[in-house]
């Protein structure tokens, strides 16, 4: 069996933050999103591959230097050119050969052990499922109906969901199922795992489900990104910084090297402050601030601010600010 982490998307729903940053390499606590996935693969003792695109390859090459992973790079540079997940799986087969594959979406944060997951694998297709508890929310995903642990119905992004149990982007496809991917694509089917699973069911394929609780995040929006930060950031990580005696830190927070926390600033809880940031007389909580951003005399709550921005004399709530922006009100 091989492990394949899928990180080839361009994450347009999180633009402008992901315009020049691959989503899987966005910071989350003291690590990147993909690091949480990679850590879970370590107990398996399997070969791990990461599938990405040519545009983001340089970022993954830098990240992977001290990691025991191999990159598979699809030759695309733009959203319009990209292979979908199933197309990327076909490319992986052409490079790595047919095998059983554990497939994990690279923006997928989950609470369960992958070893426990594979312990449930019986040689048939296996998917991880989670109850989102909300029919409106379920419309965004592949909705699953079960009979025991067997999948009896699957509908991708239904208008009227039959349940709130959804597929989470963690799958095991056995060798014989990987072998029918070319047929699936040649028939002109949609290039996504949910529609592939629908198609497999229509062909009489047995599919089983591993149901888990606690937490699951699909980092597809600013809200899910910030909620994941609140769940996974359990303690503070503060590097070499300059901090005013009048400033206050409320754990948990991450403050990276070279940051300056000046004046009567309050940082936290649940704040990420990137390298080289300057925060002066400002309150920041439930927010992620990328490197080399300057924030003065402002209140930032539940917001994401990209690198090299300047924010002055503002109150920002539930905002997403692209890189190099300069926003201020008066002096």
TrEMBL record:
InterPro entries: GMPPB_C, Mannose-1P_guanyltransferase, NTP_transferase_dom, Nucleotide-diphossugar_trans
Molecular function terms, GO-annotated: transferase activity
The Mannose-1-phosphate guanyltransferase C-terminal domain, residue ranges: 249-313
Ranges for domain Nucleotidyl transferase: 2-233
Similarity comment: Belongs to the transferase hexapeptide repeat family.
Record protein name field: Glucose-1-phosphate thymidylyltransferase
């Amino acid at each position: 069996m091989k492990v394949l982490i899928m990180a080839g998307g361009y994450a347009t729903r999180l633009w402008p933050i992901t315009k020049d940053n691959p989503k899987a390499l966005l910071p989350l606590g003291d690590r990147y999103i993909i690091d949480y996935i990679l850590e879970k693969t370590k107990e398996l003792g399997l070969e791990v591959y990461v599938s990405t695109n040519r545009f983001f390859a340089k970022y993954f090459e830098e990240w992977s230097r001290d990691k025991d992973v191999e990159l598979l790079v699809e030759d695309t540079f733009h959203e319009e050119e990209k292979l979908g997940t199933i197309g990327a799986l076909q490319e992986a087969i052409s490079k790595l050969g047919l095998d059983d594959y554990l497939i994990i979406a690279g923006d997928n944060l989950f609470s369960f052990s992958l070893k426990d997951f594979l312990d449930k694998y019986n040689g048939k297709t296996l998917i991880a499922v989670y109850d989102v508890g909300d029919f409106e929310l379920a419309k965004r995903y592949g909705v699953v109906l079960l009979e025991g642990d067997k999948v009896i119905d699957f509908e991708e992004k239904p208008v009227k969901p039959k349940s709130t149990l959804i597929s989470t982007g963690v799958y095991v496809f056995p060798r014989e199922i990987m072998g029918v991917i070319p047929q699936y694509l040649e028939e002109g089917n949609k290039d996504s795992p949910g529609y592939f699973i629908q198609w497999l069911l229509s062909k009489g394929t047995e599919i089983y489900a591993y149901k888990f609780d606690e937490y699951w995040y699909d980092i597809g929006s600013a809200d899910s990104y910030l909620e994941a930060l609140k769940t996974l950031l359990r303690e503070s990580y503060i590097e070499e910084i300059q901090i005013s005696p009048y400033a206050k830190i409320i754990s948990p927070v991450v403050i990276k090297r070279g940051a300056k926390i000046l004046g009567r600033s309050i940082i936290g809880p649940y704040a990420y402050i990137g390298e080289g940031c300057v925060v002066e007389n400002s309150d920041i909580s439930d927010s992620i601030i990328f490197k080399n951003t300057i924030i003065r005399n402002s209140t930032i709550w539940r917001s994401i601010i990209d690198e090299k921005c300047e924010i002055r004399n503002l109150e920002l709530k539930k905002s997403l600010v692209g890189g190099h922006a300069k926003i201020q009100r008066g002096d």
